[in-house]
Amino acid sequence: MQLLQLTMDKWRGKVAVVTGASSGIGAAVARSLVHHGMVVVGLARRDDRIKQLSEELAAAKEPGQLHAIRADVCKEEDLLSAFDWVDRELGGVDVLVNNAGYWSHVGIDDGTVELWNKILNTNVIGSSICSREYLKSVEKHKKEVGHIFVVNSVVGHIVMVDSPMYCASKHALRALSMCLRRKLADQQSKIKVTDICPGLTKTEILDNTTRQDMFDHMSCLASEDVAAVIVDCLSASSVTQICEVVMNPVPTSIAAY
């Protein structure tokens, strides 16, 4: 633990933007980064939850800070406004955690354009907008190092026939991360890109499925497990880029490998 803290000291006082920070993995990541002394900006529609978490962390005298901004990742204007605030008030972004996601079992045969758009806009377009604005911020403030995380899923490695559009969105995220990582490498950039692909994780995203009872008898990761992996990646040496992490609960029946 002491060694981890030492390796995380390089991020103390640095700014992280975390989407979907009102609950689940996003809230756990925000809490963990604040614990390690980072200034975290949590984005979510339910900003009241982030404000409550911020008060809890302040009361616990954690070394970092948590700011709350109300933003819907499906609305470009919300994200532009949020990143503009971070640029003006905090001097830009160092770490981006694209965490916001939407899960639905809607298929091709029974799907609607409204639901398909909800999945793709949240999981793919929202992350793309945030990554674009992050890179603009890094260039504007001439930051030499940084890190983009995409909280993906093992579903990005396999096929789930009962969730084709959700599955497609996760495969798209992997492809986008690989393309971005290659582009940054070609530019000799030191900005890292890491895809985090958890297996079944107990979060509120499961509330969006009508088959929630199916998960009651399955092993699940906790949000804190995913947050811990993100901290591990941030603590890696400056020459080490962890491109992808695939993690599953033990035991699991839905495994990418």
Description:
There is one protein chain. The protein is globular. The longest helix is centred in the middle third of the chain and has 28 residues, at 113-140. With 257 residues, the chain is an alpha/beta fold. The model has no long low-confidence stretch (mean pLDDT 91). It is built from seven helices and seven strands, in the order H-E-H-E-H-E-H-E-H-E-H-E-H-E. Strands 3-2-1-4-5-6-7 form a seven-stranded parallel sheet, with helices on both faces. The chain has helices spanning 2-8, 24-35, 47-59, 76-90, 113-140, 164-186, 223-234; strands spanning 15-19, 39-44, 65-70, 95-98, 145-151, 190-198, 244-247. The two termini are 29 Å apart. 43% of the residues lie in helices and 16% in strands.
Short description:
The chain is an alpha/beta fold. The protein is 43% helix and 16% strand.
Q: Can you tag this structure with a few keywords?
A:
257 residues; 7-stranded parallel β-sheet; alpha/beta; 7 strands; 43% helix
Helical content class:
40-55%
Q: What characterizes the major β-sheet?
A: 7 strands, parallel
Shape: globular
Q: What is the tally of helical segments?
A: 7
Order of helices and strands: HEHEHEHEHEHEHE
Mean of residue pLDDT values: 91
How far is the first residue's CA from the last residue's CA? Answer: 29 Å
Report the structural category. alpha/beta
Radius of gyration: 17 Å
Strand content: 15-25%
Give the assembly state of these chains: single chain
